[in-house]
Specification:
Largest sheet: 3 strands, antiparallel
Low-confidence stretches: 14-45
Strand order of the largest sheet: 7-8-9
Mean pLDDT: 87
Oligomer: single chain
Helix content: 40-55%
Structural class: alpha+beta
Shape: rod-shaped
Number of strands: 12
Radius of gyration: 49 Å
Distance between the termini: 185 Å
Order of helices and strands: HHEEHEEHHHEEHHHEEEEEEH
């Protein structure tokens, strides 16, 4: 009886050991079902650009195209549109800082067309699959970093003209969490753990609205490979508008330059003429005057010598000129010639005229002296006579 009980106990022990060995073997061969990290998800993600599907299922996404690579995104900025001097872009129209030109609306029209073809949800609020957005941001960020390093002026133009939500460059930097550890000898080591990167794509700035040209529309098409031909056409149209307006602006600048040169030339001529007139006046003022010159000067300035701006020169016998008109004294009608005073605007003006030739001055002169002067002038150079 005792022998039977002992055998039974040994059997039980063997059975238990076998069961425990089998369980251990099964645990060692079972698959490891660890939760994948974000990095693994991104690494294994498809290059498909996934947007929300037109259905009631909020988590249902559909492919509309392919996510552009870093080099493909950067290639967009090799278009001639981005090679102009910064000041030339001021020639383009803008609304709230967003460019506007004919043909730029092709962006929204094309996006709506592609969404409709793929049965994607068409709404003012753009919704992209998280994995697609992560891949797109990585490629976009890499391109921006490359441009910032190689072409800083182009980077600033892109940032201020197309990415209005860019307040700083923090999204371009990878941040880390530092974990410190110490060993049994007191030596400290640091472990840099990457933190979640701030996205350089921020569709919420425009509430995801792609119904007009803005940063959302631009970035969506930039990370969408199939949209690049459309972007190229849009920038080509913008470049044409800019060139036409640049030609017009340069023409206006040239016209203004020529006008200023003409004005400058005229001023120079006037200056030279003024110098010439001054020299002529100095010469005239220093010489003796003929009787006819004195009478004409007195009749128009009240001074026998005349003035710098009004003096008469007898360049031929009985023919005088003040630079504005020439008068042959022999053609004045002595019969019709009269000398009289006239008050105008409380000013007294002395007039000498035959109604064809007219002399006047506001100078306070004696009418008797003026009459005496003309009597001498008509003796020197007699005018014509008439019956009355």
């Amino acid at each position: 009886m005792f022998s039977f009980i002992l055998q039974f106990i040994v059997f039980i022990i063997i059975a238990l050991v076998s069961t425990m060995s089998l369980a251990k073997e099964n645990r060692s061969t079972a698959p490891n079902l660890q939760k994948p990290t974000t990095t693994q998800i991104v690494k294994n993600s498809s290059k498909a650009l996934m947007v929300r599907k037109n259905s009631d299922n909020w988590d249902d996404f559909v492919k509309v195209g392919t996510i552009a690579t870093t080099s493909q995104i950067c290639k967009v900025f090799s278009h001639p549109f981005f090679r102009s001097p910064i000041k030339n872009y001021e020639l383009l129209d803008t609304i709230n800082g967003h460019f506007r030109w004919d043909g730029i609306e092709a962006s929204t029209l094309w996006i709506n067309k592609k969404f409709k073809d793929a049965n994607a949800k068409i709404s003012r609020g753009l919704s992209i699959n998280e994995n697609s957005l992560t891949v797109a941001d990585q490629n976009f960020t890499a391109c921006l970093n490359q441009i910032k390093m190689e072409k800083p002026k182009l980077y600033n133009f892109i940032k201020y003209s197309f990415l209005h939500y860019f307040k700083n460059d923090t999204c371009l930097e990878q941040r880390f969490k530092i974990n410190k550890k110490v060993d049994d000898n007191g030596k400290i080591t640091e472990e840099r753990i990457p933190l979640k990167k701030k996205s350089c794509i921020y569709f919420n700035y425009n509430s995801g609205d792609y119904s007009y040209w803005n940063s959302t529309t631009f970035v969506l098409m930039l990370v969408w490979k199939e949209a690049h031909p459309v972007l190229s056409t849009i920038f080509e149209n913008g470049n044409k508008v800019m060139k036409v307006r640049l030609i017009k602006r340069n023409k206006l600048i040239e016209q203004k330059r020529l006008a200023e040169e003409k004005k400058k030339g005229e001023l120079q001529k006037q200056k030279e003429l003024g110098n010439t007139r001054k020299q002529l006046w100095l010469a005239y003022n220093s010489r003796n005057k003929t009787l006819m010159e004195q009478v004409y000067n007195f009749s128009t300035t009240g001074e026998l010598e005349g003035s710098q701006n009004n003096y008469w020169v007898e360049y031929k016998k009985c023919v005088l000129s003040n630079g504005r008109q020439s008068i042959d004294n022999r053609k004045i009608n002595m019969t019709a010639f009269r000398i009289y005073s006239e008050t105008k605007n409380k000013k007294n003006k002395m007039i000498s005229t035959d109604r064809k030739f007219y002399f006047s001055t506001y100078a306070n002169i004696s009418i008797d002296r003026l009459q005496q002067g003309w009597e001498l002038a008509f003796k020197e150079c007699p005018g014509k006579s008439s019956r009355f």
